[in-house]
Specification:
Elements lengths: L15 E4 L2 E5 H26 L2 H11 L5 H29 L3 H19 L8 H15 L2 H11 L3 H28 L8 E3 L2 E3 L4 H15 L11 H15 L5 H6 L10 H33 L3 H32 L2 H18 L13 E6 L4 E2 L4 H5 L4 E7 L17 H30 L5 H29 L1 H21 L7 H5 L1
Antiparallel strand pairs: 1-2, 3-4, 5-6, 5-7
Helix pairs in contact: 1-6, 1-7, 1-8, 2-11, 3-5, 3-6, 3-16, 4-5, 4-6, 4-8, 6-7, 6-16, 7-12, 7-15, 11-12, 11-15, 11-16, 11-17, 12-15, 13-15, 13-17, 16-17
Length: about 525
């Protein structure tokens, strides 16, 4: 597409913004492009929040729907969301490239998003098979989060090279805030209680409320994709063509010139370097899932906290983490002006993300409290001496958890020392410092290594990699934790991060933008 040139009579009203005297867009077009970017930030935030808002409450919600639910099944339910994203992301990226647009795929994903969250909210109405229905509902929410690929595609195509790091940082900020603020939404709904109330026959409580909340936000997000608010942009292609024409005018050649003339095959990306960044991105999200998945059950097992107390404490910790992350996401583009992005990724991302994991080993001398079931009267009094059958035979009494803690089925609980809230909090805080840098700079370096080419499928692949990590992660970590305990779980996490650090150092010189590598 040729570089747009505004009519002379519009120049005074909409001055041209260009490159070395060559016009790329008017000020009005730039303003519209910025609005569209913010809509994509909102969409990314919403999808990320929908993935995490259920995490602190889903385990007790599952137990409420079906008391026979195991931690392994909980791992599968957590994995259902990223599995849906894993499948849909490359397809959405391919469709974006084929259509040359992101609005249509984004609207499709939002419609699926709204329907899936409605289903999650009405699960108590299903008498049987609730644990299967929640699995499908979370899978469909994952399918809808393929819209994150459309968002990343729009950012890579709708920004100038000079804007790319800041824009990807803002997109990553939106995603990270969604991840960490999601549990705060669950915390805000806690006053509704576990029983809640009904409106028109529909259940509203602290668990179903998250479904209604995300459904409402999805409807608002859908409105913003109206053509009056959202406009497609191909400013990245126009910038590449503008640079090519300048090089041609000056009698020079460049990678950008060749790419603008569709000669991409002669300038292939460094696939080894890209694979390293993709592997790093995978492990970063795999490690994030460890905290996301095990936060609630580990707190109940290791500290003996009740479900409600766990939701409050873990949710509060994530709110604090979101405040810290927000500051870091705004600082990353500033730091990138003074330091090499590779240095920031390793020194301020991977290193603290690795060090934080060390604090998740048990350092106390006491074992964790053991979970105990008992017969409780409706007034909260425990009836001693009754087994489960005798208890259930009486009115106004129920066989419930009297003391939260490690279940006897986890035999390692009798031998291994317990984690302590203090060390876990310190480790979580350090990991909070590293996650934003890893998340932003992996995407930024990845995009620049690809060069000025359509990146819909590539971004879909990157999103799928993060989804794969979030599919494998919950299943793997719940199995390792349940069968082998905290030391094996933390040891695996530390070992993977050390491996990432070593590989990045070995391949450091190849992690550069495409044009710079060729020159």
């Amino acid at each position: 597409m040729d570089t747009k040139v505004a009519e002379n009579e519009n120049n005074n009203r909409n001055p041209l913004i260009g490159l070395n005297g060559m016009a790329l867009e008017t000020s009005a077009e730039k303003r519209t492009r910025r609005y569209s970017l913010w809509i994509m930030y909102l969409t990314t935030f919403l999808q990320a929040m929908a993935g995490s808002i259920v995490i602190t409450g889903m385990w007790p919600y599952l137990q409420k729907l079906d008391s026979t639910t195991s931690k392994e099944w909980f791992g599968w339910v957590v994995a259902a969301n990223p599995l849906g994203q894993l499948i849909s992301s490359p397809l959405i990226g391919w469709v974006c490239n084929r259509l040359g647009a992101t609005r249509g795929p984004s609207i499709f994903c939002l419609v699926v998003f709204i329907c899936a969250n409605c289903w999650y909210a009405v699960l108590p109405l299903h008498q049987d098979g609730s644990k299967w229905f929640i699995l499908v509902a979370r899978f469909l929410v994952g399918v809808s989060s393929g819209s994150i690929t459309a968002c990343r595609t729009f950012v890579t195509q709708g920004t100038l090279v000079a804007e790319r790091t800041a824009s990807i940082s803002h997109l990553s900020l939106s995603q990270a805030l969604g991840f960490v603020l999601g549990p705060a939404g669950q915390l805000a709904l806690k006053p509704l209680g576990e029983e809640g109330f009904f409106i028109g026959g529909l259940p509203v409580n602290m668990y179903t409320g998250v479904g209604w909340m995300t459904t409402t936000l999805g409807l608002v997000n859908l409105i913003f994709f109206h053509p009056k608010f959202f406009h497609e942009s191909d400013i990245a292609i126009r910038e590449a063509q503008g640079k090519a024409k300048i090089s041609e005018r000056d009698g020079k050649t460049s990678v950008t010139y060749n790419m603008a003339n569709s000669n991409v095959a002669t300038h292939k990306p460094d696939y080894l370097g890209i694979m390293v960044i993709v592997f790093t991105f995978f492990i970063v999200f795999f490690e994030f899932v460890l905290l996301e998945t095990l936060g609630t059950p580990v707190s109940m097992d290791q500290f003996g906290w009740s479900a409600e107390r766990t939701i409050v404490i873990v949710g509060t910790a994530m709110i604090i983490s979101s405040i810290v992350s927000t500051s870091l996401f705004f600082l990353i583009p500033i730091g990138a002006k003074y330091f090499d992005e590779r240095v920031l990724l390793i020194g301020f991302g991977v290193v603290p993300y690795t060090l934080g994991r060390i604090f998740f080993f048990p350092y106390s001398s006491e074992v964790a409290p053991m979970r105990r079931l008992g017969c409780l009267h409706s007034n909260g009094t425990e009836l001693v001496g009754l087994n489960e059958e005798q208890c259930n035979a009486n009115d106004d009494v129920h066989w419930k958890v009297v003391q939260h803690g490690c279940p006897e089925a986890q035999t390692w609980c009798f031998e291994l020392p317990a984690l302590t809230p203090v060390t876990v909090a310190i480790g979580y805080a350090i990991c909070t410092l590293g996650f934003p840098c890893c998340m932003v700079l992996c995407q930024t370096i990845f995009s620049k290594m690809l060069g000025p080419r359509p990146q819909g499928v590539w971004m879909g692949a990157l999103t799928s990699i993060s989804s794969l990590a979030r599919v494998v992660g919950p299943i793997f970590v719940t199995y390792i934790y349940t069968e082998y305990g905290t030391i094996a779980t933390s040891g695996t996490a530390v070992g993977l991060m050390v491996l990432v650090l070593v590989i990045l150092l070995l391949i450091y010189k190849r992690l550069v933008p495409l044009g710079k590598r060729k020159s």
